[in-house]
C-alpha cells in the first residue's frame, strides 16, 4: 500500500509550499506597508522632495560692503571687471575632457595653456597652487582682466568655447587710498569650499554659504564677514527630467552688504607705514658694533592708538605685500613668495602676532610692582654699573654707573641695576629657591597690566605673549624635560648645553636670574606691540585699559547707522593716582633729558607746547641683534614702534616716532606748529556723514601724505613682494561707489585656503602637551637669551 497522499504530494513538499506561501505573503505585506508609508503617510514630504529634484538654484552674489577709514575714504571697495570663467561640468562633457577648449581659451587670452589648465584643476592634498579650492560646480575664474576684444571673441564663438563665459563681475579692490597699504589689517577673501557649503546647507540667511560666496579669510574681512558679505540672490528654475528649463519657481533679489567704518585714518596710516619702512632702511645702513655688521632690521611693527578709547588710528606691519594679489585668484609664484621663509612671512600682522622681549619699556610695569610690594617712591636706590647675583654678573647697558638715584631717575636713564636689585630683594623675601607663599608682585602686576593674555582686538589670530611666572615655568618644564635631559646626556659645552643640563634637573624652579631678568623685560618675557600700546594708553588717560578696536560702526548701503561699536573698558591701573603721576613725570623726563632726549628735545621737539612721554627699550636676543622698542604717548595718542634686529630703542625708532607726532600735530623740524598741516591734532570721534546714495562726504586732505614730515622727500615703500598691476590713484579710489546689485556676478578671488595663519589661530598648546615649533614661530618668537642662572 502506497504512502503518497491523494494530492500526490508528500508531507515534506506540503510544508515547503506553505512556508513559501507565507514568505511571499510577508513580502507582499511589507511592500504594501512601505507603499502606504511612502504614498499616504509621508506623501507630502516626498512630494516636496520630488518637486525639489526639478528645481535648480541660480545664485547671484551680493555686492560686498566697503571698508572705510574714519573719514569715509574707501580702504576696500568693489569695481567691475570683465571676468572669464570656465564650467568644469561642461569641460568634463567634452570628449577630450576640455583640453581643446582650454587650449583655444589660452590662445585668445594670451596665457600659457599650462597656466589655464592649472587654474581650473581642483585643490587637494597632493595638488599645489595654483588650483581651485571652491565648489567644482561653480564657474571657475581664469582671468579677471579680460579685454573687451577678448570677451567678444569668446561670446561670438560659443561653439568653440562651451562652458566658458565672459561677463562684467564685481570684484574686490583694495584701493591704497592716500597711499596706505594696510594689507594685514584689511585681510583678503577666497571662495567657500564644498565642505563649508555642505555644513551650512540646512541653514538660512547669512548662516548659509552658497557656492558663489566669497568669505573673509583674514583681517577685518574675516571678523566682520557677516556684516560685509550681504545676502546672495537666488532664482529657482523649474527643469524637466532632461534638465531643460521649463519655468521660474520664484526668486529673491540679492542684498548688498553693509559698510564698515573704521577708526583708521588713511593719511596717518600712510605716514606710519612710510616711517616704519624708513626706520628699517636706516637701520640696515647702520653699523652694529656688537656683531660687526649692519643691522638686519628684518621685521617691524608700529601702532597709533587713541588713548581715550583704545581705537586704532594706524597699524603697520613689515614686511608687507599687495593685498590685491588675492583678487581673482593668487598665482602659484605669488603664493610661494607670501608663505616662504625667505619672505619672512609678510601675511603675519606683527602688531598683534609679533612677540618679543619688551626690554626696558617693561620698567613701568616693574616700577608699579615695586611700589605695590612696599618700596617707596621717595626712596633712593643704588645704580652701580653691575650686580653679581648667584655668581653671575648682571650689567647696566654700556656699564653706566649713576650712583644712588630715585625710581623716577631710574626710569629716565633706564638703569637696569636698580630693577635687578629690587627684583632680587623681592625674590629673597618670597623665599628664594624655596618659596613660602610668595607674593610674586612682579608677575602679578604684569598680569594686572594685561600681559600674557590677548587684548581682544577685533582682528583674528592675535597671540597672548607670555608672562613666565611659576605656573608657566612648571608647564614649560613638563613639556621640555625629556628634550633637555637628552641634550644634557650628549655632554656638550655650548651655552645651550649648559642650560639644558641645569633645566633637566630643576628647570621648574624660579631662580634669581629668572626674577631679575623679568624685571627689565628680558628672559622668557614676550609682548606684542598692541599690548604695549594699550599699557601706555592707560598711563596717558588716567589708568583705564581699553580694549583695542579698529571698527567704529556698521553702516547700511544707504548711509544709515546699523550699529555703533563703542569703546570697552577692560581694567584699571593697579596703582593709585600718585604713582600714575610719578610715572608720567618720569616718562616726560625720558624725552627732555633721558634716553630719548637726543631724538626729541635735542631734535627740536616743542615739549613745552605738546608734551610727550616715552620709554626706550633695547631687548637682547640670543643669536640675533638687539630689538628696538620705543613706547610713547601724548595727551591724545600712544605711538609704539618696534624693529626686530633694529638696534637701540631711540636709535632705531626715535626719528620715525618723532616724525609720526610731527605729522599728527603739524610740527616742522624746527619745532614750529602749523595747525593747517596737522593731520589729526585730536582723535576723530564723530562718524563720517553720507550722501543720499550712501557715499561718504570726505573732507579734502591738508597734508601731503606722500612725504615724511621733516624730510620733504618721499620715503621708500615697505618691502613688497609684488606691486599692483594698476594701482588706484587716491582721487579715483575715494570716488568708488557701491555697485548696483545687477552688476554683481560670481566674484573671482583667492584660490587657496587660509593656511598661512593656521599656526596662530590658537598659539597656546593644550595642557600637558608641548607646543609645535615651526619656521613661522621662529620668525615671531626670537631665541630666548640666557636667563641669568643663579
Task: Describe this structure as you would to a colleague.
By secondary structure, the protein is of the alpha+beta class. The chain has 25 helices and 25 strands. The strands form eight sheets. Strands 2, 3, 4, 5, 10, 20 and 21 form a seven-stranded mixed sheet that branches. Strands 14-13-25-24-23 form a five-stranded antiparallel sheet, with helices on both faces. Helix 14 (363-372) runs parallel beside helix 16 and helix 15 runs parallel beside helix 22. The longest helix is centred in the first third of the chain and has 31 residues, at 11-41.
Note the quaternary state here: single chain
How many strand units?
A: 25
Low-confidence stretches: 701-790
- Average pLDDT score: 83
Q: Estimate the strand proportion.
A: 15-25%
Morphology: globular
Percentage of residues assigned to helices = 25-40%
Q: How many helix segments?
A: 25
Q: What labels would you give this structure?
A:
disordered C terminus; 25 helices; 5-stranded antiparallel β-sheet; 790 residues; alpha+beta
Compact description:
The chain is of the alpha+beta class and 790 residues long. It contains 25 helices and 25 strands.
Fold blueprint:
Blueprint: H1 11-41, H2 43-52, E1 55-60, E2 67-68, E3 74-86, H3 88-92, H4 99-109, H5 113-120, E4 140-143, H6 148-156, E5 164-174, H7 183-186, E6 189-191, H8 194-199, E7 214-216, H9 219-223, H10 225-229, E8 233-239, E9 245-252, E10 259-262, H11 266-284, E11 287-288, E12 293-294, E13 299-306, E14 312-318, H12 332-339, H13 350-353, H14 363-372, E15 381-383, E16 386-389, E17 392-395, E18 403-405, H15 407-413, H16 416-429, H17 441-448, H18 470-489, H19 495-506, H20 512-519, H21 529-541, E19 544-546, E20 551-555, E21 561-564, E22 569-572, H22 577-592, E23 613-619, E24 627-633, E25 637-644, H23 649-665, H24 730-733, H25 775-780
Parallel strand pairs: 2-10
Antiparallel strand pairs: 1-8, 2-3, 3-4, 3-5, 6-7, 8-9, 10-20, 11-12, 13-14, 13-25, 15-18, 16-17, 19-22, 20-21, 23-24, 24-25
Amino acid at each position: 500500500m502506497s504512502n503518497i497522499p491523494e494530492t500526490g504530494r508528500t508531507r515534506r513538499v506540503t510544508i515547503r509550499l506553505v512556508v513559501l506561501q507565507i514568505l511571499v505573503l510577508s513580502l507582499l505585506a511589507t511592500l504594501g506597508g512601505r507603499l502606504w508609508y511612502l504614498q499616504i503617510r509621508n506623501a507630502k514630504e516626498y512630494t516636496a522632495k520630488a518637486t525639489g529634484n526639478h528645481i535648480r538654484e541660480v545664485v547671484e552674489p551680493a555686492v560686498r560692503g566697503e571698508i572705510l577709514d574714519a573719514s569715509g575714504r574707501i580702504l576696500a571697495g568693489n569695481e567691475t571687471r570683465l571676468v572669464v570663467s570656465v564650467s568644469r561640468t561642461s569641460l568634463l562633457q567634452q570628449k577630450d575632457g576640455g583640453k581643446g577648449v582650454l587650449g583655444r581659451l589660452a590662445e585668445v587670452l594670451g596665457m600659457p595653456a599650462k597656466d589655464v589648465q592649472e587654474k581650473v584643476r581642483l585643490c587637494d592634498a597632493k595638488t599645489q597652487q595654483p588650483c581651485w579650492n571652491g565648489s567644482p560646480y561653480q564657474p571657475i575664474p581664469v582671468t579677471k582682466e579680460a579685454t573687451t576684444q577678448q570677451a567678444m571673441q569668446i561670446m561670438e564663438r560659443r561653439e568653440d568655447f562651451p562652458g566658458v563665459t565672459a561677463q562684467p563681475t564685481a570684484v574686490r579692490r583694495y584701493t591704497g587710498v592716500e597711499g596706505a597699504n594696510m594689507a594685514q589689517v584689511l585681510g583678503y577673501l577666497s571662495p567657500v569650499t564644498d565642505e563649508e557649503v555642505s555644513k551650512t546647507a540646512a541653514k538660512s540667511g547669512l548662516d548659509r554659504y552658497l557656492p558663489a560666496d566669497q568669505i573673509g579669510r583674514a583681517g577685518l574681512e574675516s571678523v566682520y564677514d557677516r556684516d560685509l558679505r550681504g545676502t546672495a540672490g537666488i532664482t529657482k528654475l523649474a527643469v524637466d527630467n532632461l534638465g531643460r528649463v521649463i519655468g521660474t519657481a520664484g526668486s529673491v533679489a540679492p542684498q548688498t552688504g553693509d559698510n564698515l567704518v573704521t577708526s583708521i585714518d588713511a593719511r596717518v596710516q600712510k605716514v606710519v607705514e612710510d616711517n616704519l619702512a624708513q626706520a628699517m632702511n636706516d637701520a640696515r645702513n647702520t653699523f652694529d658694533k656688537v656683531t660687526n655688521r649692519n643691522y638686519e632690521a628684518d621685521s617691524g611693527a608700529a601702532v597709533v592708538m587713541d588713548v581715550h578709547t583704545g581705537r586704532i588710528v594706524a597699524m603697520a606691519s613689515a614686511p608687507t605685500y599687495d593685498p590685491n594679489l588675492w583678487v581673482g585668484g593668487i598665482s602659484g609664484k605669488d603664493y610661494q613668495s607670501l608663505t616662504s621663509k625667505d619672505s619672512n612671512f609678510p601675511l603675519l600682522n606683527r602688531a598683534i602676532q609679533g612677540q618679543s622681549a619688551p626690554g626696558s619699556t617693561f620698567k613701568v610695569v616693574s616700577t608699579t610692582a615695586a611700589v605695590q610690594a612696599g618700596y617707596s617712591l621717595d626712596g633712593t636706590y643704588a645704580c652701580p654699573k653691575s650686580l653679581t647675583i648667584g655668581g653671575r654678573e648682571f650689567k647696566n647697558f654700556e656699564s653706566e654707573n649713576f650712583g644712588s638715584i630715585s625710581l623716577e631717575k631710574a626710569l629716565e636713564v633706564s638703569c637696569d641695576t636698580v630693577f635687578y636689585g629690587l627684583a632680587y630683594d623681592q625674590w629673597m623675601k618670597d623665599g628664594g629657591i624655596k618659596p613660602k607663599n610668595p607674593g610674586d608682585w612682579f608677575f602679578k602686576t604684569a598680569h594686572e597690566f594685561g600681559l600674557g593674555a590677548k587684548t581682544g582686538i577685533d582682528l583674528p589670530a592675535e597671540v597672548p605673549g607670555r608672562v613666565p611666572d611659576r605656573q608657566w615655568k612648571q608647564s614649560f618644564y613638563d613639556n621640555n624635560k625629556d628634550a633637555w635631559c637628552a641634550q644634557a646626556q650628549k655632554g656638550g659645552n655650548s651655552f645651550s648645553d649648559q642650560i639644558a643640563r641645569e633645566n633637566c634637573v630643576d628647570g621648574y624652579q624660579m631662580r634669581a636670574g629668572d626674577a631679575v631678568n623679568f624685571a627689565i623685560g628680558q628672559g622668557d618675557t614676550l609682548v606684542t606691540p598692541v599690548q604695549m600700546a594699550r599699557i601706555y594708553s592707560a598711563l596717558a588717560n588716567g589708568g583705564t585699559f581699553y580694549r583695542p578696536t579698529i571698527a567704529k560702526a556698521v553702516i547700511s548701503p544707504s548711509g544709515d547707522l546699523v550699529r555703533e561699536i563703542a569703546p570697552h573698558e577692560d581694567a584699571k591701573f593697579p596703582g593709585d593716582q600718585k604713582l600714575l603721576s610719578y610715572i608720567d613725570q618720569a616718562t616726560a623726563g625720558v624725552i627732555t633729558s633721558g634716553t630719548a632726549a637726543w631724538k626729541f628735545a635735542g631734535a627740536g621737539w616743542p615739549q613745552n607746547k605738546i608734551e610727550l612721554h616715552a620709554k626706550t627699550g633695547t631687548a637682547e636676543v640670543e643669536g640675533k641683534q638687539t630689538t628696538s622698542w620705543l613706547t610713547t604717548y601724548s595727551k591724545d595718542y600712544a605711538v609704539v614702534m618696534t624693529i626686530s634686529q633694529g638696534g637701540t630703542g631711540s636709535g632705531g625708532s626715535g626719528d620715525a616716532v618723532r616724525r609720526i607726532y610731527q605729522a599728527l600735530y603739524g610740527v616742522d623740524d624746527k619745532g614750529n606748529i602749523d595747525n593747517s598741516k596737522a593731520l589729526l591734532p585730536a582723535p576723530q570721534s564723530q562718524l563720517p556723514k553720507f550722501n543720499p546714495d550712501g557715499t561718504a562726504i570726505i573732507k579734502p586732505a591738508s597734508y601731503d601724505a606722500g612725504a615724511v614730515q621733516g624730510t620733504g622727500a618721499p620715503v621708500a615703500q615697505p618691502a613688497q613682494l609684488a606691486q599692483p598691476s594698476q594701482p588706484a590713484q587716491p582721487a579715483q579710489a575715494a570716488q568708488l561707489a557701491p555697485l548696483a546689485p545687477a552688476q554683481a556676478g560670481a566674484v573671482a578671488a583667492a584660490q587657496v585656503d587660509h593656511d598661512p595663519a593656521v599656526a596662530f589661530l590658537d598659539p597656546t598648546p593644550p595642557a600637558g602637551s608641548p607646543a609645535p615649533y615651526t619656521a613661522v614661530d621662529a620668525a615671531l618668537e626670537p631665541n630666548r637669551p640666557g636667563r641669568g642662572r643663579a
